Every structure is written in structure tokens, then in C-alpha cells.
Amino acid sequence: MGGYVLKRLVAIIALTFGITVVAFLIIRLIPGDPVIAMLGTGAGDKEMIARLREQLGLMRPLHEQYFVWIGHVLRGDFGYSYANQQPVSSLIASSFPATAQLTLAALAISLVLGSAIGIVAALRRNRAADTLGMGFALICMSIPSFWLGLLLILAFAVTWPIFDVVGGTGLKGLVLPAVTLALGTMGFNARFIRSSVIAALTQQHVVTARAKGVPEVRLFAWHVMRNALLPILTIAGLQIGQLLSGSVIVETVFSRPGIGRLLIQAILAKDYMTVQALIMMIALIYALSNFIVDILYPVLDPRIAR
User: Fold this and answer.
1) What percent of the chain lies above the pLDDT cut of 90?
2) Which residues pair with 81 in a beta bridge?
């Protein structure tokens, strides 16, 4: 177990290094002068250009710039947003809770509904419930999230004004964005879980346990779902990153004050320090969630750690 964790730890450290290098190079490899792009209308002020170039350390060799920048990042300093006139770390700190709330709610909806539909479809294989469940899952996967969000706004905010839709971070403002973000991955989860459960039902030890008269509830909970949980855990880890990236569109549609909307605003304003920090943070959360999933594997199946 210790060796398994150590290997995964080395892998996540190497991946983190790669992520920081890519995020660092974004601002250095953009076409033209990044300082002029960042300043926009203030680019005519030569003194300001020289001061910003000095602050960013653009006159130094690239490797020195990286080590200075990563040193600041490790101290929680992601630079200064000239578009918003405040430190990037403050922008992220004020926006991240709304995105974390949205992502966790969407993940919970996606896993609970997807598991329920997938399990029922597997247990009623080739029957009406299976066809209806998989049809619904396919529809959810096919609908673009921005279009679904607009439909939900029209139905549940305009026609029937039940939920808040503009900038709300309370429960009434969370429901529609979370459902919009969750339905696409929910459809995928339902189909994936159906396949996993069907595969687990046909395994030899499950057939043997059923022949020995093990009660169906215990058979399903202990022998079937335990085997089916490993692939489900894998897609749960992958979907955290997918939902985070999906929040960019959903938060824009619902005017939700999260990091997804902040990223769009930063791109439009050419606020590269903010773009750089957000891309790095989203990628690191994605990597960290997969690292946690890797650590949980041996808990479900100790053979993986051998």
C-alpha cells in the first residue's frame, strides 16, 4: 500500500510541475507584447509599460522568470489584475465558493440520478424501464448545456417564476445551474453504471453466490455493487474536472459569480494574470481529484495495491 501511494504521489508531483510550466508559458507565448495586451487602453503610458514589465520580470531569462513566479504562487500571490484593479488571489477567493458549491451539487445530482437510472435499467435489462432509462440518458447527453440552461430559465424563471436565475448563490439560485450542469454527465453515468452492473451480474462469483441461495439484496449490495463501484469511482474523479470546465458556460448563462464566469471576463478583458491563475487552479483541482480517486482504489479492491 505504501509503495502504491508513493508512486501516485510522485506522479501527481510530476503532473503538478507540468501544469505550472504550461500555465506559466501561456502569458509568455501569446502573440505580440503581453504587457501591451494586458494594459489595453493604458498601453500608451511608457512608464507604466516599463514598470509592469519589471514587475513581471520579463527582462530576465525564462527559467528565472519561472522560479520567481512559482515562488510567488507558493506564497499565494498570483499577481495583480489590472482589469479589476485588485490582486488575483482576492478575485479567486471571492469567486471560488460559488463554483465549488455548483460543482459539488451538480456532481451529487449526476451520481445519484445516474446511479438510480443505471441500476434500474440493468436490473430490468431489455424491458420497458431499460429502454426508457437509456433513452432519457441519451437525450440528456445530447442537449447542449447552454441551450438547456436557457430552456430552464424560460420555464422555471419566466413562465413559472420558482427559482432565482441571475447571480443567486442561495438554494433557489443553485437549483437550475446545478441541474443544467449535471444532466449531461448524468446521462453518461446512467449508461456507464448500467454496463458496469450488467458486467458484475454475469461474473462467476456472483452466479455461484446466487446458486448457493444468498439473498438478492445482500448479493446485489455486497457482490455486485462492490465490483461496480471501481469504474464508478473512476468516472466520478474525471467528472469533477469536466464539471469545473462546464461551469464556465453555465455560470455565464446564469450570471453566477464563480470562477467560470470570472475566466470568461478575464479572457475578454485580456487579463492574462487572472487567466493564467484560473487555468492552473482548475487543472490542479482536476489532478488532485484523480489522485484522491487513485488512493481510494485499494480501499475497494486491495489487489490493486499489490
Assistant:
1) 8
2) 86
